[in-house]
Fold this protein.
Amino acid sequence: MQQQRIPRVPRWWVIAQTGLQLSWKSQWLRRMLFLAWLPAVGLGLMLFVYEFSMTQPPERMGAHALLRNLPNSGSVIDSMLTDPAGARREVWAYLLLTLFRYPQGLLMVLVVALVAPPLISRDMQSRAFLLYFSRPLGRVDYLLGKMIVVWTYLALITTVPALSLYVLGVFLSPDLSVVGHTWDLPLRILGASVWLIVPTTALALCFSSLTRESRFAGFAWVAVWALGWAAYANLTALDLHGNRWSQNGFESRWTLISLYHSLGRVQAWVFGLEPDFVSVQGPITLLTILTLVSLAVLLRRISAPLRI
C-alpha cells in the first residue's frame, strides 16, 4: 500500500507552531506583548484630542501641547497652525510613525532578542537537524517555519497595535469623513511593517545560525542596534555641518551607520512624511542588501547538515 505524502504546508507549520509554543513560555515575552498596547492607547487619546479640536477650535492649543511632547513634531504643529483641516492626514501619519519608531522600535529589539536567538542555534546544539532533515523537509520549509515565529511576534507588537490605533482613531472621531482623508494609512501600516519585519527577522536568524550558543546570537543582535545607534549619535553631534532638516525632522549623513535610523527613515517615507525619495535610497539599499546577505548565510548554514 502506497503511503500518502504529507502536504507541503503542514511541514513548515509544524516547525512554526513548535517555535511559537516554546517562545510563549517566556514570561518576559508575554509582558512585552502586553506593554506593546499601552503606547497605542496613549496615542489613541491624542488622536481623540486632535479630532475633538477640529470641531472645537479653542481646544486646539491642548492638541498642540500634547504633540510638542513627541519627537520631531515641529513640522506637524506648523501644519496644524496654518491649515488645521489639511493637516489631518499628516497628523495621523505622524502619530502612527511615532508608534513604530519609538516605543515599538525598542520593543522590537527586545522581543527579537528573546525569540530569535534560540530558534536555530538550539537545533544545532541538540542536533535536531538530524531529525528534521531525515524527513521530507526542505531548507525553505525549515527556514519559513522559523521566520513565521519571529514574524508573528513582531506583528503582534507593531502591525496589530498600529491597525488598532487607526480603528480606534476612526471610532473616536466626530464623523466618518476622517476615513476619506486617511484611507491609505492601513496600507502604509502594512508597508512599514514589512520593512521592519523582513530585514530584522533575516538578520536575527542569521546570527542564530552562526552559533550553537543562543546567548552569543542575542548579544550580537543587541550589539548591532546599540552600537549603531551610539555611533550615529556621536558622529552626528560632532559633524554639525553634515546635517540638515527634512520634513520628518533631523537627518544626518551618518544614517547608514545605524540600522535603527535607516529603518526609521524608510518608514517615514512609507507614511508619506519623507517625500524626498533620494534621501531614502541609501537606507532602502542597505536594508535590501542586509536581507539578501542574511538569507544567503541562513540557507548555507541550514544546508550544512545535508552535506555531512
User: Anything to note?
Assistant: The mean pLDDT is 84. Residues 8-307 form one domain. The beta strands are 243-246, 249-252. The two ends are 32 Å apart (CA to CA).
